[in-house]
Design a protein that fits this description.
alpha+beta, single chain, 8 helices
């Protein structure tokens, strides 16, 4: 059995409510931690421990973090995780508490240097709303899912060091950025299951036909110059999982509140993507200090 990653050790400590142990999985000097539900970046262990304590206090007492999928990259030390919260007593999933996280680690200590956490949408748009937005946006983008590429040349992704062949997920996004949807779909298995959590599309897509329809709507809702930039990857050669941190750019400028985190599974025989889970950051954020004052459990429909 593979040893636990530093992220999994953090989750286990949090589950014991050992917040000192959980926060000690992070560097103290140079730490940058972003929880995309909240404003501001946490830059010290003390503040991170306090955030962990407030988060636990706002949840059922028996809430635990379950790591569903993990990608640990031996070459870079990066770790990606897909997770959800459940009640330890009966194993029931707590509504509104699944998501993805991405971590970079310090090579000398193995501790987490940066963290980014994106949680599923609390308020989910329905299909009618999404279709109306796409129809309206199409009048400005020319109504085509295969519009011209951005005028500016895309800068190389920091996720792909010079000399390394692009991974399957980089090939997938490079094709989408060209609006070459068929080439993007060539990266995906016929029986793929792809889940999306963003302010416009919350879907479970099964098979290439449903994914094709989603990609067409997604492209039609954005200007032709929009592109997804992969900021960092965690490519796990042992289990085939790929964690990713990314953001959306238009005309070379990052769009506010459109960062995200994803987890992908690949087929061991073909290397194609067989599963995906994309989570975009919350469009409206809560001030961090307000966490202790908010009735978060009632907002999420939770009962202690």
């Amino acid at each position: 059995e593979a040893p636990l990653t530093v992220a999994e050790r953090c989750y286990e400590a949090w589950n014991r409510r050992d917040m000192d142990g959980a926060s000690s999985c992070f560097l103290d000097d140079g730490l940058e931690y972003d929880d995309a539900q909240f404003l501001g970046t946490i830059r010290s262990r003390r503040d991170l421990r306090r955030r962990f304590e407030l988060g636990a206090a706002a949840l059922p007492r028996d809430a635990v973090v379950i790591a569903d999928e993990v990608a640990s990259c031996e070459a870079t030390g990066n770790v990606g995780a897909r997770w959800h919260l459940e009640r330890k007593g009966d194993g029931s999933t707590i509504p509104g508490t699944s998501g993805c996280s991405f971590y970079t680690t310090d090579p000398s200590t193995g501790l987490i240097r940066t963290g980014f956490k994106a949680t599923e949408m609390v308020f989910k748009p329905d299909k009618t709303f999404a279709d109306r937005v796409v129809a309206s946006a199409s009048t400005f983008t020319g109504g085509s899912a295969t519009g011209p590429r951005a005028a500016s040349s895309p800068s190389p992704s920091p996720a792909k060091p010079e000399g390394r062949a692009p991974s399957i997920i980089e090939t997938y996004y490079e094709a989408w950025n060209r609006r070459d949807l068929e080439s993007a779909l060539d990266c995906v298995s016929d029986d793929c299951v792809y889940e999306t959590e963003d302010p416009l599309f919350v879907s479970v897509l099964r098979g290439k036909d449903e994914l094709r329809s989603h990609l067409e709507k997604n492209a039609a809702s954005l200007p032709p110059s929009a592109r997804i930039v992969l900021d960092d990857l965690a490519i796990d050669g042992a289990n085939g999982n790929i964690g990713a941190r990314w953001h959306l750019e238009v005309n070379g400028f990052a769009v506010p509140n459109l960062r995200g985190c994803s987890m992908y599974a690949t087929d061991a025989e073909t290397g194609l993507l067989k599963g995906g889970y994309d989570v975009t950051e919350a469009p409206v954020k809560i001030p961090g200090p307000a966490l202790g004052l908010l009735a978060v459990p009632s907002m999420l429909g939770l009962i202690r």
